[in-house]
Write a structure and sequence with these properties.
CATH architecture of the largest domain: 3-Layer(aba) Sandwich
CATH superfamily of the largest domain: Periplasmic binding protein-like II
Helix content: 40-55%
Strand content: 5-15%
Number of domains: 2
Radius of gyration: 22 Å
Number of helices: 19
Shape: globular
Structural class: alpha/beta
CATH topology of the largest domain: D-Maltodextrin-Binding Protein, domain 2
Largest sheet: 6 strands, mixed
């Protein structure tokens, strides 16, 4: 169950009395305690209430681990404590396997959402389906990409110094050797500037994401042909070797990286302390939202990849799911239909979340205000998904431990990965 202190306006009763004495239907939604999500979903809740007199939408916010535990592991969605929940796609397989999530396909057939699924990119539709069942609807997207300070890369003094040092033009790096060289070039602790930052805090998310990108961008895979994690390969060893060397080197990487999650690392970048980072597209959209001088100085590029390997990206996004135990399913479906409209999908952008409809991505006014939206569709088309299944959380915990050992011990990379491979075998982790 979500901690009581984290719950906003949440009451025990499912029905309360309005000012005029009439009954008020209450729709409860669980979400992560992230200001952008709270502001955007809070506005949608108020607008929905205005359109539906007698309805109250209550938001329950909590930390990311508590969100998973409260909605799925502890049965909050299955037992009806929440009608809806904003969930990261990593959790959907577990939610479906445990019976926590309502199958939305039946609701879509009875009272369809206009344009579904053709109005969304396929990369946002595929991860939500489990056979013929529909687990949820996308709400906030933002695949990973290289986000960089265009002002630093365009500075004539930097360009001349870089050319003299490396014999090539200063540009967003296309491979990991260039990434390391460019990070070292920009790092200047006296000026509180670092070449890059990683979200290396072991929260079961970004450590796995960065690990996967490091492996994929070198032409490797996380799984073998039978769906078993394959962690002891030359490519995986090279990927972890590079990651731990960069993150542990204050002449390359922001020294607070091991304490930062994805949103905190983005905040460090937005504060002007970092030249470039591999992170979520959503941070680059701040170019049209924030008022300070950094706002107009952000740009994006493909994630670096080894020579001969295609550029890769990762699509992990947030989707709204209905609890199988909800007593307000008709109202919950109506809310889902409301937030899936083109107007509402475009409306959340001003609060920071990234819209998920193709109509939002292609909106000329939005592209003029936030130019990186012109590139979102191309990035999303090539974005990969993580292995999905009931073992995702257990696998993420193992990778968390791998990263922690890599950053805090002098054990060899091979020894760290061999121990992780042994744990994978002991726990029987496999993906369909």
């Amino acid at each position: 169950m979500l901690p009581t202190a984290c719950i906003l306006r949440l009451r025990n009763e499912t029905v309360s009395h309005g000012a005029a004495g009439g009954k008020v239907s209450t729709l409860r939604i669980a979400l992560r305690d992230y200001a952008d999500f709270e502001n955007a979903l809070g506005e949608e809740a108020r607008l929905f209430e205005a359109l539906h007199p007698g309805v109250r939408v209550e938001l329950a916010t909590t930390g990311i681990h508590e969100l998973y535990n409260g909605t799925i592991a502890a049965g909050g969605l299955r037992e009806g404590r929440f009608d809806l929940a904003l969930l990261v796609t990593d959790w959907l397989a577990a939610g479906m396997a445990t019976g926590a999530l309502e199958d939305l396909q039946t609701w879509q057939e009875e009272l369809p959402i206009p344009d579904w699924p053709d109005g969304w990119a396929r990369s946002l539709v595929r991860p939500l389906h489990f056979g013929e069942r529909l687990s949820s609807l996308p709400w906030h997207d933002g695949p990973e990409c290289l986000v960089y300070r265009s002002d630093l890369f365009a500075d004539p003094g930097h360009r001349a110094a870089f050319r003299a040092q490396f014999g090539r033009e200063l540009a967003p790096p296309t491979n990991w050797q260039q990434f390391e060289e460019t990070s070292r070039f920009f790092t200047n602790p006296d000026a509180n500037l670092y070449g890059t930052v990683f979200a290396a805090f072991p929260d079961g998310h970004n450590t796995l994401y960065d690990f996967a990108l490091q492996v994929w961008s070198r032409g490797g895979e996380l799984l073998d042909s039978a769906g078993h994690p394959a962690l002891v390969t030359p490519t995986v060893v090279a990927a972890l070797d590079f990651y731990r060397r960069v993150v542990r080197d204050p002449a390359l990487c922001h020294p607070r990286s091991p304490q930062l999650d994805s949103t905190q690392s983005g905040d460090v970048f937005l504060s002007g302390e970092v030249a470039m980072m591999v992170n979520w597209f959503g941070f680059a959209t701040r170019s049209g939202l924030i008022e300070d001088a950094l706002g107009s100085k952000m740009a994006i590029a493909p994630i670096p990849a080894d020579e001969g390997c295609a550029a890769v990206s990762l699509s992990v996004f947030w989707a709204m799911a209905m609890g199988s135990g909800s007593q307000n399913k008709e109202l919950a479906w109506e809310f889902l239909r409301f937030i899936a409209t083109p107007e509402r999908d475009l409306g959340i952008v001003r609060h920071g979340p990234v819209g998920v409809r193709l109509s939002t991505w292609r909106n000329p006014a939005l592209q003029a205000r936030i130019p990186v939206y012109r590139e979102l569709e191309t990035i999303s088309l090539g974005a990969r998904q993580l292995p999905a299944g009931p073992h995702t959380a257990a696998f993420a915990a193992i990778i968390d431990a791998v990263i922690t050992r890599a950053l805090t011990t002098d054990n060899t990379t091979l020894a760290i990965l061999e121990a992780a491979q042994s744990e994978v075998a002991q726990k029987g982790i496999k993906f369909p």
